[in-house]
Amino acid sequence: MVGTILQESARETPETKIIGTPAARAVDFQQTIPRSLVHRAAVSEVFVTDLNILGEGRFEVGAQWPRRHSFFGPRTPVFHDPMLYAETIRQAALLIAHRAYGVPLSHSFLSDRKDYSVVETGLATLGRPVDVVLRAGAHDVEYRGKNVGGMRLDFDCFRDGQRIGTASERWRCVSSAVYRRVRGDHFAATPFQAAVLPAVAPASVGRDRAEDVLVAATPRDGTWALRFDPDHAVLFDHPADHVPGMVLAEGARQAALLALGDPYALPASAEFRFDTYVEFDSECLLVVDVDPVGPDPTRTVRVEVRQKGATAARATLGMRLS
Hints:
The structure is a single chain. This protein is of the alpha+beta class. The chain folds into 2 domains: 2-181, Hotdog Thioesterase (Thiol Ester Dehydrase, Chain A); 189-320, Roll (Thiol Ester Dehydrase, Chain A). It contains 4 helices and 13 strands. β8 (215-217) and β9 form a beta hairpin. The longest helix has 20 residues, at 82-101. The chain has helices at 2-5, 82-101, 176-183, 245-260; strands at 11-12, 48-55, 58-65, 108-118, 130-144, 147-159, 162-174, 215-217, 223-226, 266-274, 284-290, 298-307, 310-320.
């Protein structure tokens, strides 16, 4: 279990260790923050722009969503992709960890829980880049000795002064030495070309390019195999020794689209639980269950990520039908 492995030396403390001085200013959208702070190799994949420390455990993060993006582009001409929101939350959490709590850039991060909900109107494209403000609160802060080892961050997302969504992410971090010990023989694992199974038709999951399709057909009803291109410029922006969480999240979304038969349904809400690592060396299946009824036009879809006969991750998606 990802969470269990890293809890052995963590403890909760009422003390909050903040680096920097609280700022009483508006967040800045003029440029993105250094790519290393959000664990990205390409500057073009950085969406967060600024961090304000408001007080003990309270923060504001600025971010900008581009009009177009090679992977997180609008799934329809009208709405931004909610997965862009999910990626923005991931980057905001890393920025807070490094800049506000002084977590070393060499540490490895592991998230076992990510939730979000966003209103449809908050995703409107309007033909221009979108500036968003994330107000974050840190909870259940854990320490290893004097250093921060993990926390839960709860977010409210604002656009043009209006709240458009909420989110929560729980993460833990460890030194490179501990991570190497935890991963063992998998530490040096790399994705390989054999992982690229035949894709379903890109149009069936709202995509134009086969390289962006993360699901392959199987003989079993309601079950798809995870596939990915290890040379994908966004999903494998930097080296990884296991399947990245965003690949699992997007794979779950695409499997849900196939189960619904609606390539442009929007995952307006999501709950992701990551129980263990998904490795590169064996088949990974996406098993889908669609609730028969739901508040029209939303359907709840549950996706179980399975590898070697065990559940590795789970997703519950609130899919807004197109």
